[in-house]
Batch of 3 targets.
Target 1
Amino acid sequence: MKKIVLMALGLVAATAAWSAGDSFVNEKAHNNIRSKDSLRRGAQTYMNYCLGCHSMDFQRYNRVAKDLELTEDEMMESLVLTDAKFVDKMEISMTKEQGDAWFGKAGPDLTVIAKARGVDWLFSYLVNFYQDENQANGWNNLTLPNAAMPHILWEMQGIQKAHFEEVTDEDGNSHKEFKSFEKVVEGRMNDTEYRDMVRDLVNFLDYSSEPAKLIRMDYAPWVLLFVSFFTFLAYLLKVNYFRDVH
Ligand code: HEC
């Protein structure tokens, strides 16, 4: 028994040490898909900063408005920044060929990116950009090394440099290991504000990858109530049936 407790404690300590050491590179999104305010803020950031390069071909403006509880006027005035119509898909005018030519690689459609990468990956990706003179566009990313995407949100986050350390493993092979970030230019937001903004943005990507999730979450308590109620009825029935069985 003592052994098991010790093993469990060891496991907890190891996990804590691992996550603490790794926390800057691999952060959790902790987004809340039930918060319409957060989703609206995320949509705003997406329309302003991402839709230029990343379409959402499986999403329509009017669907987003309905799900985020916005009227057509609110949607068209504050979120549709192009000459797109309310019923249109969230497409972009840049073709894949143009994207490939301009950035080396076109930005992919992001409708279901949260399903493909997961929200924590997305969150980490958007906080892990750093300045790198060796890259064509001047940026690099810890989560997606050598990414073709420039740091679009740098004015908010500021500019950070990454420090690496040369590490040699048992076989004598050396590789670079990330040590820390150093802020070289302050952004318009502090770290907490920036992460809150990114969390909202990731929340919007999470919603868009499965809009039905909102409905499912709304129904969940009722389904559970229904199941509990019928379990109770079944129990009463059982008590009744077995009353005369001795
Ligand atoms: C100037 C064009 C441009 C803008 C604006 C832009 N991106 Fe990108 N993005 C790219 C390109 C190009 C890639 C491909 C990177 C690669 O694979 O090397 C990319 C890749 C990505 C990926 C990784 C996809 C994957 O799984 O490989 C994500 C996620 C992403 N962008 C999110 C965003 C978000 C969120 C915004 C808005 C804040 C944004 N992008 C704005 C050009 C852009």
Target 2
Amino acid sequence: MLTTVTAGPYTIRGVSVGGVYTSLAVPELGLVFDAGISPRSAGGIDTILLSHGHADHVGALPALLGIRALHGKPKPPRVVMPAEIVDDLQAALAALTKLQRFPLAIEAIGMNPGDELALRPDLIIRAVRTFHPVPSLGYVVVRRVAKLRAEFRGLPGPEIAARRLAGEAMLENEDRLELAYATDTLVSVLDHSPELLKTRVLIIECTFLDDRKSLEAARAGCHIHLDEIIERAERFENEHIVMMHVSQLYRPDEVAGILDARVPAALRNKIIPFVPNGTSWPG
Ligand SMILES: [Zn+2]
Ligand SMILES: [Zn+2]
């Protein structure tokens, strides 16, 4: 049922069918992106990042919380989401708590574009604006590493040690853009947040792949069309691009062939289509 791909140092495991359900776990980062389906294996992960409130992205959150309880997880998970939907999501969970006679608790964290959340001192989530008809966010995962300041590099070790002892500020932070997740958005997200083009791994929706859906119709639904990715082919500096949220207009086994035929080789080589093996979508 689950698809697993490897992108650099990261495993991306889950299910993503445009408009049907999307939930992707990245175990190395301890993150789940979206909860449109509730894979059993995602129940052990403590941080869930929600892109927006559409059912194909949040509909299975209550089931995921139930699975966590079965796993014996004592603490509610941290659930990050657009600030505008915190109250509505809490109200929905309160209604389901009543229905179940069992608490569906979360630690809700609302974010606005540009906000940062430190998961650990060295691991930061940055929210970026996405463009959809409802409140929505994308997320950039940043690894913050302390480095010797440029002016001290090349100094002999004992001198560095002496200056450090004397209390000089020797270190500066460097942010490494590790991974980004952007779904259910117009392609203008890439112009608005060009850092997405520089992350080591970019997980991005590409719901429509050819003229089975026109560019205009894709834009009207606030989704990305492959034509728009191809137009920007030169701009992607990512090592790997995981392309997900593909519409069921396409069979999973067609997707790689469409990409081969349409996408310039330098970009195609970076793209990992997030689709299952075989001819049918899960479920
Ligand atoms: Zn969607
Ligand atoms: Zn949506």
Target 3
Amino acid sequence: MKTIGIFYGSTYGMTQKAAEKIKDAFGKTKVNLYDLKNASIKDIEKYTNLIFGTSAWGIGEMQDEWEMTIDDLSKINFSNRKVALFGLGDQLEYPESFVDGLGTMYCRLPDKSCVVGLWPSKGYNYYFSLADKDGKFVGLVLDDHNQENLTDKRITEWVKQLEKEFI
Ligand SMILES: Cc1cc2nc3c(=O)[nH]c(=O)nc-3n(C[C@H](O)[C@H](O)[C@H](O)COP(=O)(O)O)c2cc1C
């Protein structure tokens, strides 16, 4: 498999921790990890297989770094790329906007046809999520506030799925 670029925005380090676990789960496959605050669109452009990670803030907002970067993705041609998304949130405190950052990220991607890594929304407790499209999340959803015990298992399964869906 081609080298994977993981780009994440993380305010208190929770998305960063998840990104590091995802990298480790790929084992021998080469994965480069970028905190978005130290990366540019040119870095994103280097990869055919991409993973974008964000936490959820405010009303439907992505993590700050993504808010500042997402519109620049339109400068990249995604037609021969695959993009998988993951999002962190808190279903107990924010059940009406659970992982909305992930949903907003999906909405604002310039090309949604490149998205892989959809994830079942079963096993989470929430009223509404922008990331839920017809009973599936638009990417891996992690909640280290309430379901930290499930995170490693979810990451392992999702990475197995991506190994089939990536180029
Ligand atoms: C002010 C504030 C607003 C938040 N809003 C949401 C939200 O709307 N939906 C949600 O699922 N989580 C929400 N969260 C939870 C964060 O997304 C969660 O703590 C996440 O793990 C933080 O990851 P990070 O440290 O990588 O930024 C919010 C947290 C704070 C402090």
